Structures are given as C-alpha cells and as structure tokens.
Amino acid sequence: MSAVSGVSGVASDLIAGYLEELHAGLRVPVAEAELIAAEAEDHLRETTAAGMAIGMTELEAQPRLRPRGAPRAGTGYPRRRR
C-alpha cells in the first residue's frame, strides 16, 4: 500500500484502521484483497491530501469513514422515499 505525501497523524490512523477492517472483511483471494485495499488506500489518502491542499485540517479533509455494517444515517447519503 502506498502513502500520499502530506497525510499523516489522525487521518492516517483512521485510514489505516479502516483499511485493516476492509481487508479483513473481504471474501476474495488474498492477492485480490490486497489490490482492493491498495486502491482504497490510494483514494482515501489522495482525497485527504487534496482537502489539506485547499486549507482544510487533516481531520476535516479525510473522507467520512464508516465501519462496515454501520447504519448510513447521518452520512450524507440521500434517504430513499417509500
């Protein structure tokens, strides 16, 4: 997995924890899980770095990470009308 320059501290710890949980929860061959986790890491770290580049704090810039299986309420996803 790679790291994007300028991203460290709190966001990295949250991203690392999320990636560990993601990797552990994937039900695919190990090599495929590693590729999926690496792609997710690149996306999360690039998103955080881009936010910091425009003046956000590291915590503000990180994507909202949601544990697997957690409800989506309050995450900004639109609710479905029934």
Topology:
Elements: H1 10-25, H2 30-53, H3 58-61
Structure description:
The chain is mainly α and 82 residues long. The protein has a domain at 10-61. It has three helices and no strands. It has helices spanning 10-25, 30-53, 58-61. Helix 1 runs antiparallel to helix 2 (30-53). Residues 1-5 and 71-80 have low confidence and may be disordered.
Helix-strand sequence: HHH
Extended strand count: 0
Number of helices: 3
The biggest sheet, with number of strands, parallel, antiparallel or mixed sense and barrel status, is: none
Structural class by helix and strand composition = mainly alpha
Poorly predicted regions are 1-5, 71-80
How much strand content do the residues show? Answer: under 5%
Task: Give the overall shape.
Answer: elongated
Rg is 14 Å
Average of per-residue pLDDT values: 77
Alpha-carbon distance between the two ends:
41 Å
How helix-rich are the residues, as a percent range?
Answer: 40-55%
